[in-house]
From TrEMBL:
SUPFAM superfamilies membership: E set domains, Oxidoreductase molybdopterin-binding domain
GO BP of this protein: sulfur compound metabolic process
Name of protein: Molybdopterin-binding oxidoreductase
UniProt keyword Metal-binding present: no
PANTHER family: SULFITE OXIDASE, MITOCHONDRIAL (PTHR19372:SF7), SULFITE REDUCTASE (PTHR19372)
Superkingdom of the organism of origin: Archaea
Species annotation: Halonotius terrestris
Transmembrane feature ranges: 16-37, 72-91, 103-120, 126-145, 157-175
Molecular function in Gene Ontology: heme binding; molybdenum ion binding; molybdopterin cofactor binding; sulfite oxidase activity
Length: 497
C-alpha cells in the first residue's frame, strides 16, 4: 500500500530491498570473477579499514579476542562493500523515479558501480563482475512489476539473488585458488640434496608431527593485510636509503644473479601460544644482504634500520641483526609463494618472525629509533626468539607404550637437549633428538617413548646451545613471546594423534 501512494521524495521498502540485493550480488559478482585477491572489491576497502583502525583497538582485539579478531574487520569490510554498491543502486532507482527516466537510472547505477569498483581495485575488466549485478537489480527494481506488495516478481528477485550469491561464491572459490605450479620448477640439485638430508635426519615419529622441512602448503602464515600484495618479479626492486653514503637499488634480476645460497631457516611468530604451531622450517634460496649494505655504507646515528614492504608493513631493528640476514626468492626449491612474500623476503637468523619482512621494498637506515607496525601496537617482537620445546603429539603405540614428540627451537643459540618429565617435573629424562641440520637458525625434532601407568602429568623443556634451560615461568605471548614449559596431562586411554 505504502508503495502505491508514496511520494517520490521517499525511498520505498521495495527500493531498499532491491538495493540490498544489488549490494550483495555486486559483492558476490566481484568475488566470482576476481576471487579472494586484491581485485575483489572488498580488498581495497579492507586495507583502508585496517589502516584506519587505531593501534590501541588492534592491541585490544589481539589480547582479548586473539586470532579471530581479524574476522571482525573482514565482516565490516564486506558490509561496507555491499553498502557502497547498494547505495549506488539506490541512487540509480531514485534518479529513474524522479526523472521518470528508467534507462538513465539503470545505466547510472551500473556505470557507477563498475567505475567505483574499477577505481578502487585498479582493474576495469574484473570490475564488470560488480557492475553487472548492480545494473540488473536496479533494472528489476525500476521495472513496473516490481512496485507492488506481495509481488511474485519480488519474491523471484530475492530467490534469484540468493541463487546468484551461492553460485558466485562457488566460482569465486575456484578463482581464488593459488595457481598450482603445474610444472614443478626445476629444483636445483643443492636444494634437492638439502630436502633429502632433512628427510633422512627426520626421527621415526608415529604421531602427526611435521618433518624437519615444512611443506609449503603447511608452513604457517601471518599477514597484517587480508589480501596479499601481488608483485611481479619484473616490477620488483628494493632500495637501501636514508642515512647511507649512497642509495643502492637492486632489481630482481640483479639480486638473483648475485652469490646464491640455500639455507635452512626456521621461523616462529612472537604472537603464537606456548604450544602453538606458528613455528616452521624451510630451505630458502637467496643471497646475503651484507654486501648490499656495505655498498650503501650505513652511517645513521642509531645503527638501526627500518624495513618496509608492499603491504605497508614496516619493522625496525638493529643493523647488526640485518647484517646476518638473507634475501630469499625461493622456498623449498619453488619460487617464493605469494603468501610468503613473493618475489623477495628477508630472513633474519634467530629473530622473531616479524623481522622477516615479506614483499620487501625498502630498507631505510635511520638516525633515531622508531616503532614498527607491531611495536606501535605494543609488541616487543624484534629481538631473538625464546627457547621452546613443543609437545605436538602424544600417541599410543601398538606395544602399549606412549610416544611423545615435537620440535624444539632456540634461534641461533641452537638446541642442545630436550628433557621430558612424566611425573609433573619431579624427574627428567633426555628425549631422542634429530641430528642438527647445518645452519645457524634451525629447529630440531625430539621424541620420547615410555610405558604409561595410568594418568601422567607430562612436561617438556629444552636446553639451548649455550646450556641455558628454557625458563619455567609462564607468560602470555603478548607482548614479548610466550614463556614457560609445555605441560599436558595424558591418560593411557585417551592418548592419540
Ligand atoms: N610485509 C610483511 N612482512 C611480514 C608480515 C606482514 O604482515 N607483512 N608478517 C610478519 C610476521 S608477524 C611473521 S610471524 C612472519 C610470517 O611469515 P610467513 O607468513 O611466511 O610464515 O612474516 C613477517 N613478515
Ligand atoms: Mo609474527
Amino acid at each position: 500500500m505504502i508503495d502505491r501512494i508514496r511520494d517520490t521524495e521517499y525511498v520505498t521498502v521495495t527500493e531498499l530491498l532491491f538495493a540490498v540485493l544489488a549490494g550483495a550480488t555486486g559483492v558476490a559478482g566481484s568475488y566470482a570473477v576476481a576471487g579472494y585477491t586484491r581485485q575483489f572489491i572488498v580488498a581495497p576497502i579492507d586495507a583502508q579499514v585496517v589502516r584506519l583502525t587505531p593501534g590501541s583497538i588492534v592491541a585490544f582485539f589481539i589480547t582479548n579476542i586473539g586470532e579471530e579478531g581479524h574476522l571482525l574487520h573482514i565482516a565490516l569490510s564486506f558490509c561496507l562493500a555491499a553498502g557502497l554498491l547498494g547505495a549506488i543502486a539506490l541512487l540509480g532507482m531514485r534518479v529513474a523515479d524522479r526523472l521518470t527516466q528508467s534507462t538513465l537510472g539503470i545505466a547510472l547505477a551500473g556505470g557507477l558501480a563498475w567505475g567505483v569498483t574499477a577505481a578502487i581495485t585498479g582493474d576495469p575488466v574484473l570490475a564488470i563482475g560488480a557492475g553487472a549485478p548492480v545494473l540488473i537489480f536496479t533494472a528489476i527494481a525500476v521495472a513496473p512489476t516490481a512496485d507492488t506488495d506481495h509481488n511474485p516478481a519480488r519474491r523471484r528477485a530475492i530467490a534469484s539473488a540468493l541463487a546468484f550469491v551461492g553460485v558466485a561464491a562457488g566460482i569465486g572459490r575456484l578463482t581464488s585458488e593459488e595457481p598450482t605450479q603445474s610444472t614443478e620448477a626445476d629444483v636445483s640439485s643443492e636444494v634437492e640434496q638439502q630436502l633429502q638430508q632433512a628427510e633422512s635426519q627426520q626421527l621415526d615419529i608415529t604421531g602427526d608431527v611435521p618433518g624437519l622441512v615444512s611443506e609449503i602448503g603447511e608452513f604457517y602464515n601471518v599477514d597484517i593485510a587480508e589480501f596479499d600484495p601481488e608483485v611481479p618479479s619484473d616490477d620488483w626492486s628494493m632500495t637501501i636509503t636514508g642515512e647511507v653514503g649512497e642509495d643502492v637499488t637492486v632489481s630482481y634480476d640483479e639480486l638473483t644473479s648475485r652469490e646464491t645460497e640455500h639455507r635452512y631457516v626456521t621461523l616462529r611468530c612472537v604472537g603464537e601460544d606456548l604450544n602453538g604451531e606458528k613455528l616452521d622450517n624451510a630451505v630458502w634460496t637467496g643471497t646475503p644482504i651484507k654486501p648490499l649494505l656495505d655498498e650503501a655504507d650505513p652511517e645513521g646515528e642509531c645503527d638501526c634500520a627500518m624495513l618496509r614492504a608492499e603491504d605497508d608493513y614496516f619493522v625496525q631493528f638493529p643493523v647488526e641483526a640485518l647484517e646476518d640476514a638473507f634475501l630469499a626468492w625461493e622456498m623449498n626449491g619453488q619460487p617464493l609463494p605469494q603468501s610468503h612474500g613473493h618475489p623477495v623476503r628477508v630472513l633474519v637468523p634467530g629473530h622473531w618472525g616479524e623481522t622477516n619482512v615479506k614483499w620487501l621494498s625498502e630498507i631505510e637506515l635511520l638516525d633515531e629509533e622508531m616503532d614498527g607496525y607491531w611495536e606501535q601496537r605494543g609488541w616487543h617482537g624484534t629481538g631473538p626468539v625464546n627457547t621452546i620445546a613443543k609437545l605436538w603429539s602424544t600417541t599410543m603405540l601398538d606395544g602399549g607404550t606412549l610416544e611423545l614428540a615435537g620440535h624444539a627451537y632456540a634461534g641461533t643459540r641452537g638446541i642442545e637437549r630436550v628433557e621430558v618429565s612424566t611425573d609433573g617435573g619431579s624427574t627428567w629424562q633426555d628425549a631422542e633428538l634429530s641430528e642438527p641440520l647445518p645452519g645457524d637458525d634451525v629447529w630440531r625434532q625430539w621424541r620420547y617413548e615410555f610405558t604409561p601407568d595410568g594418568s601422567h602429568d607430562v612436561v617438556v623443556r629444552a636446553v639451548d646451545g649455550e646450556g641455558t634451560l628454557q625458563p619455567e615461568e609462564r607468560s602470555d605471548s603478548y607482548p614479548s613471546g610466550a614463556t614457560g614449559w609445555v605441560r599436558k596431562t595424558v591418560n593411557m586411554m585417551d592418548a592419540s594423534g
